[in-house]
């Protein structure tokens, strides 16, 4: 996690404040390069409100660490004077590892500093015992790094559904995997020798949207993830809400009016059971649409013109829309991002979802920006969020 300098014994409060201020300033400078690069230092100063001298100092430190580089393209100012030599991210040297543990398989990936997937693979579970799953994930990461000899890994991000405690680096509870109190940071760090950062996948994807996706610049963002696990995350003023022990966003057992699916908790109509991809696949099997458990096969059947597959996807999207409407009433975000296979791949499903949302808010709802790499981006973005929040504390020099 981000580190701060130890306070001086003679004046602890100012030193802590200074450290926080430096961390924030470094963050806004690197984020400005990410969002606007190639960009002149003078433009960064104008955008951030920092002094030109401070911006120059941070850029020099980032360049020394290999996070940014000067662009080869000169840019002239609007007035007279010498052309500006802009700076841009150096996305050629460093990567982060990403690990996302889903119910049927683990996705391992390498992402560059712009959040783009450089390499990835899926590791099918041979069992869900935590030590085995994490060891195989580490093996997968090593194989990807061996195939990218010019890249240096800054760290590893881990994401999963269920209850994931960011601060302790622990999966507290993942009922579908049977995991309880799994010390992911400790175990995965021991296998890789790299810093490991851990978070829930809904929160990880909010951070990915803020940094690299369509929600960049939004003042508040709600994300609803509807896969085998159903959960949510909410960010406001560039901060994702975690709550005590990172339990915020646990919406699996919210009641759905008119729901018919039985839940393991003993009730009927819980949100996760109604929206789960397992439920979708079971319904598709019962209707003779598919014979497996891969929800993308339902999407494929719909694309091939199967009317039952289309109906199942549209019905699911409408239920997702009703859940979004409920969350909108409670949180009133500026933007809503939905990760759900129908909405990601079919315009009619997105339209069906929006029809369930209040007319004036429907346009604020959009699919995730990374439909073909959701799980890879979720894992890697946990580590990238740490980098962009504290680029000097999470720098390659420290690692």
Automatic annotation (TrEMBL):
Extract the coiled-coil ranges from the record: none
UniProt cross-references to Gene3D superfamilies, sorted A to Z: 3.30.420.40, Winged helix-like DNA-binding domain superfamily/Winged helix DNA-binding domain
Specify the superkingdom. Bacteria
Pfam families membership: ROK (PF00480)
> What is the similarity comment for this entry?
Belongs to the ROK (NagC/XylR) family.
Its protein name is ROK-family transcriptional regulator
């Amino acid at each position: 996690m981000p580190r701060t300098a130890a306070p001086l014994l003679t004046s602890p409060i100012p030193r802590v404040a200074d450290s926080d201020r430096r961390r924030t300033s470094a963050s806004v400078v690197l984020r400005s390069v990410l969002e606007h690069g190639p960009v002149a230092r003078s433009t960064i100063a104008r955008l951030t409100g920092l002094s030109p001298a401070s911006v120059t100092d941070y850029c020099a430190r980032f360049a020394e660490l290999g996070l940014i580089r000067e662009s080869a393209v000169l840019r002239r100012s609007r007035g007279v004077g010498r052309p500006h030599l802009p700076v841009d991210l150096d996305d050629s040297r460093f990567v982060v590892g990403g690990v996302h543990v889903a119910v049927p398989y683990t996705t391992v990936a390498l992402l560059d500093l712009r959040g783009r997937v450089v390499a990835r693979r899926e590791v099918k579970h041979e069992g869900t015992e935590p030590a085995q799953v994490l060891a195989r994930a580490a093996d997968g990461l090593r194989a990807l790094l061996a195939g990218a000899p010019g890249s240096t890994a800054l760290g590893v991000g881990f994401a999963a559904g269920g209850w994931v405690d960011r601060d302790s680096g622990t999966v507290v509870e993942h009922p579908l995997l049977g995991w309880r109190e799994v010390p992911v940071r400790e175990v995965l760090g021991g296998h890789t020798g790299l810093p490991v950062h851990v978070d829930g996948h809904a929160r990880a994807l909010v951070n990915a949207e803020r940094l690299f996706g369509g929600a960049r610049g939004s003042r508040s963002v709600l994300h609803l993830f509807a896969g085998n696990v159903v959960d949510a995350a909410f960010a406001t003023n560039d901060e994702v809400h975690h709550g005590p022990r990172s339990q915020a966003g646990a919406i699996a057992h919210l009641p759905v009016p008119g729901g018919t699916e039985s839940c393991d908790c003993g009730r009927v109509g819980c949100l996760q059971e109604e929206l789960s991809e397992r439920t979708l696949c079971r319904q598709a099997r019962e209707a003779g649409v598919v014979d497996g458990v891969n929800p993308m096969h339902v999407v494929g059947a719909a694309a091939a013109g199967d009317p039952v597959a289309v109906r199942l996807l549209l019905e699911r999207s409408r239920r997702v829309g009703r859940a979004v409407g409920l969350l909108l009433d409670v949180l009133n975000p500026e933007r809503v991002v939905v990760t759900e296979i129908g909405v990601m791949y079919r315009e009619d499903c997105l339209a069906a979802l929006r029809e369930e949302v209040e007319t004036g808010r429907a346009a604020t709802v959009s699919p995730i920006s990374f439909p073909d790499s959701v799980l890879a981006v979720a894992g890697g973005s946990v580590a990238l969020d740490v980098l962009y929040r504290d680029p000097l504390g999470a720098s390659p020099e420290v690692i």
